[in-house]
Amino acid sequence: MDEFEIIRSYFCRQVADPQLKIGIGDDCAVFNPGSGHIAVTTDTLVEGVHFFSDADPEAVGFKSLAVNVSDLAAMGAVPKYFTLALTIPEYNSRFLEKFSHGLFRMASSCGISLIGGDTTHGPLSITITAIGTTKPGMEITRSGARPGDEIYVSGELGGAALAVFLKSNATHLTDPLLESDSFMKLDYPQPRVELGCSLAGVASSMLDLSDGLSSDLMHILEQSATGAHIELEQIPYSRSLFELDLFNRINFAVSGGDDYELCFTVPPEKRNALKEIAEKLGISVTRIGTVTADRGEITYTLNGIPFDIKTRGYNHFAK
Amino acid sequence: MDEFEIIRSYFCRQVADPQLKIGIGDDCAVFNPGSGHIAVTTDTLVEGVHFFSDADPEAVGFKSLAVNVSDLAAMGAVPKYFTLALTIPEYNSRFLEKFSHGLFRMASSCGISLIGGDTTHGPLSITITAIGTTKPGMEITRSGARPGDEIYVSGELGGAALAVFLKSNATHLTDPLLESDSFMKLDYPQPRVELGCSLAGVASSMLDLSDGLSSDLMHILEQSATGAHIELEQIPYSRSLFELDLFNRINFAVSGGDDYELCFTVPPEKRNALKEIAEKLGISVTRIGTVTADRGEITYTLNGIPFDIKTRGYNHFAK
Lengths: 319, 319
Fold this sequence. Notes:
2 copies of one chain form a homodimer.
Chain A: H1 3-11, E1 20-22, E2 29-31, E3 37-46, H2 57-75, E4 78-88, H3 93-110, E5 113-121, E6 125-134, E7 150-154, H4 159-168, H5 176-187, H6 193-198, E8 205-208, H7 213-224, E9 227-231, H8 246-255, E10 262-266, H9 271-281, E11 285-292, E12 298-302, E13 305-306
Parallel strand pairs in A: 4-5, 9-12
Antiparallel strand pairs in A: 1-2, 3-6, 4-6, 7-10, 7-11, 8-10, 9-11, 12-13
């Protein structure tokens, strides 16, 4: 089976979209962008770095797209199209079937269409470029946080990092249900598309949590020239962390990555607007702290007492 | 040095472009697409597959972008933006300096700006997604060739494939100047942006030659439901092939890939319009054959006598 047959067999799906003028199979895909702005993001997943070598290919396909869609959500963009650059060591129909199944499961759940890509031979890795649309001027960047804004996160934190720990250390939780919760979070993260798209005009800054709260929040602080105070007792700890002691819970939830929840800041006067949006969508959002004027500094307290966070979020190439 | 420092040190360049609303450093880049359609293409280059392990990093950077820009050119699109997904085994300042130098040399030569990407740890590979704009309805696809249309290629063919052969077999040409011609073509392909953008309304179909004339032309024929007759004596053989016998010249030029010249079809009544464009741009274009009604079949003749082409273009995963 050659690269063209692989594309035809596993990756060509009919797209009913009058804006898509030319889909898979030409030198480029071509679409009519309409009146919006175009948001673009690219993320790579490498075997052995971003996913375990024995990971379920369905989860790999699902997650490869989910992490990119999560970046669109973090900008407040509506997902539209993506390209897939798939590098595989050899032709493997079982892998391709499961991978494409997971990929398209994610794609249909958020209305994003595959419009092109490249299939090459080499060590397993997946690069996806996702394209979305925003209302001009309504993009939610990392630079809009102001002292006094409240800091929120969606969902729960720490579940994905716990799964990485359990897998790396070949150990288990006592409760298999909590453990499967943790692995679901790692393998099948749900990008917060609806929430992200609803926060334009409400959130002053936003990003998605991929490397971990403590290191990702720093990007908002650096780009907004602000600081933050985090109240650790407010963190929405993943219920999969309940078998752990408090220090480990904090460690996984604050320094652990891969949750793909949204972290955003909201001016106090928009607190009620946020509450309404969250209720309407049925998504939990939790206030975990406040933006401060201490440029580039995060202070942590636990029930009012200063708490020293030593570990940092995951960073490729850091020693 | 961590991934953020790598991006800051090597890949952040000021972009003076009022249409670019948000550049590198947020969850997504955001641009105003204006009134055009958006063309998107993605290509991956893997070490040991698409370039030799001892390749000059400057050439790798240059070519990674060039092959993507070539796809935009083949659609008649104007290059605008690109994202870079760079996977490298370890931090290597010499590699990054030379790679980024080659990348931005290509970028500035065709007015395309880096707006985002991802830097990850793993076996060396580069995936670029290039974005361009087209005038709505003026895209040049692979499906518009009609029997009687004339088949053209830009530039010369076979030089890049010869370089791959010389390198793989650790052999040399007698004339070092011809040999360096051949390696320039392999390492620093020049995408035909101006020509591609000028052919709207003139070319009925177009693509770029990456896998080789014989296999790439087949894509036009399949998508246009036509055939082709190629006159081998008309092929513009790379001058680097002059030390080879005729059979080998034909083999490299027809079956060898990596030339990144444009192959396109033109209705006979637009022959003069093409001539004017080529003269104005100072780019050689050569008529090499004719589109026929023999669906999916290419016949070759050499000075009027049928010629059997046995070898095929390069295809990943083909046995």
